Amino acid sequence: MAHFRRHPAGWPTSAGRQGWEMLADLTREEQRLIEAAAEGDWLDLRTAATDTIRAAVVEEVLLGKRDGPVRAVKLVGARIVGALNLEAVTLPGPCWLVDCRLDDVVNLREAQAPSIRLTRSRVCELLAEQLQVRGSVDLAGLVTAGDEVRLLGADIGGSLYLSGARLTNPEGYALAADNLVIGQNLFARDGFVSRGSVRLAGARIGGTLELDGARLSAPGADVLSADGLVVGQDAFCRDGFRAEGEVRLVGAQIGGTLSCSAATLSNPDGRALNLDSATVSQDLFLRRDCVVEGEIRLVGAKVGGSLILSTARLTGAHGSAVAADDLSVGRSMFARTGFTCEGTLGLAGARIGGLLDLGGAMVNCDGGVALDASGLVVGESLVCGEGFAARGDLTFAGCRVAGDLVFRPSSAPTGVLDLTNAAVRSYSDDPATWPDRLELRGFAYETLVNDRITTRQRLRWVERHRGYTPGVYDQLAEAYRRMGRVEAARTAKLARQWRRRRVLNPVGRAWNWLLYLTVGYGYRTWLAAVWLLALLLVGAFVLDPAQLHPAVANPPSLNRVAYTLDVLLPVIDLGQDKAWVAGGVAQVWAWALTASGWLLTTTVVAGLTNALKRD
User: Per the UniProt record, which residue ranges are transmembrane (predicted)?
Assistant: First the structure.
């Protein structure tokens, strides 16, 4: 039988295989390999006297350099000595190396094969750029000795199995698989460990990506770098999945659900999960006690279903826990009981198609913005109740809620509640948990839900708005009017004018006081009649007939009430004032009554013509 030995000048490609020389002095195990390959049988060397096979013999068998057909190379428990070089070759059958030890490099660059297995094997380095495999590549349980596994641009028709593999390259990439194409699934679960970065940028996976229970470690770096990743179905990083470093999926497209439930993501000084501009066609889960140390970024991301953060525990970086500006959620967002957020929960400009439920959530950014929902659009209701608590400012400026805004936290927030220019269908709150300061300028609501809150209490709520803003009172009055509470609406309008005096000069304040006392700023004009009656009684009592003298011949009989009324009201003439002239003290009282009458008349006219209702 002829044997070939490889030329010593490096690794030849398929075009240079004729430069090989026959290998001689085959061992018994090598001869058994040749015989097993011809039948496609397994060769198990786990109990053999010697388990060593030269890599060059494996190459010869796979390349058909031995007599007879080659169905497959199936080795178990072998130690393969030397570099296994299959670069740019076409393998006639599968190459399955199970529980083997390969002391040198495995080179599969640009090779073509029906299927490849290195199941539970140990390799120094695996180079498989542009590898093409019609079936699956099984690297489950693979262990590397400190160099990377390279699958850049590889094309795998079936699935890629990495479950239980232990890839180690702490200073670089443990797995480099940019632009990898997998027709079916990628499984890297059940104890998959990576010490070093995993790169899947631009990769395309036709089925499911499963990383459940995997442990990835690259502190301070991109532990999983998968910008532009495309997954046809679901992506799972659940049930004990741990990542030290940034999980980066910028611009990724997930055809189904993305779940990080019961996972731990840790990058305390930076971004723990980066989904900027990513698309998740169905739901995004970070629940079941998911723990995140570092910032979650969802800027410009699109979630077709629901976003569920309930029971997750988030600790942000540099004051930011969630940055989800311009996030789009097709259905609802839940961050309910057990959800804790240390740092800003940022939803500025986000769009939630259904319900946003923060019932029972705890958001903490004391001294900063705990919840930034400025410009948020919610298709149904926004609920901050049932145990919701916040330390820090809550910003709903410009928020649009098609349904109800429920703000009933378990305790009063420590910061400002900013509702500037927000618009909701109805607003529900509780006086026991009102914050000390509110921003209500432009806040529009159709109705107020909590009927147990009295008008006086609601006015105290409005007064927590800093500065004088007429529209705040007008909005409250309009809401009361729609609810059929006309008297409450008038009270709100009156309170608006009362608050206005704080911004007036001394003269204006005096006039404001006079208007309040005489006609209730035009909303209680009946007070003018009370004042008129009081002045009539005063006049009738203090005007002494002895000090009233006839001014004309044959004057009418003196009537003190008629005389007082004639002096008080400048718009009527009862003939008493012209027929009788006051003298002495009576003259002083007459002047005082005349002045009072003019003031009273002016305020009544102003109230009736609505002049006092202008800002």
Answer: 525-543, 588-612
CA-closest candidate to residue 180, choices 216, 210, 150: 150
| pLDDT digits 0-9 by tens, 211-260 | 999 999 999 999 999 999 999 999 999 999 999 999 999 999 999 999 99
How many angstroms separate the CA atoms of 352 and 306, rounded? Answer: 9
Could you tell me the maximum CA-CA distance found in the chain, to the nearest angstrom? 161
Domain map (residue ranges) of the chain: 509-613
Distance CA 353, CA 337 (A): 21
**Cα dihedral 459, 464, 465, 468 in deg (nearest 10):** 70
d(CA 353, CA 333): 9
SS3 507: helix
Q: Contact at 8 Å (CB) between 136 and 114?
A: no
Q: How many other β-carbons are positioned within 10 Å of the β-carbon of residue 258?
A: 26
- CA distances 498 to 470, 487, 603, Å, are 11, 16, 16
pLDDT of 611: 42
Contact (CB, 8 A) for 149 and 170 = no
Nearest 5°: phi and psi at 511? -65, -40
Is 534 buried (19+), middle (13-18) or exposed (0-12) by CB count in 10 A? exposed
The token pair at 571 is 């718009």
- Contact residues for 446 (Cβ-Cβ < 8 A; gap 6+): 424, 425, 426, 479, 482
pLDDT in tens, 337-351: 889 999 999 999 999
Q: Tell me the three-class secondary structure of 262-296, residue by residue.
A: CCEEEEEEEEEEECCCCEECCCEECCCCCEEEEEE
Output the CA torsion 257→258→264→268 (10° steps).
-150
To the question of pTM greater than 0.90 for the whole model, the response is no
Do the beta carbons of residue 185 and residue 157 sit within 8 Å?
Answer: no
Q: What is the average pLDDT across 312-334?
A: 96
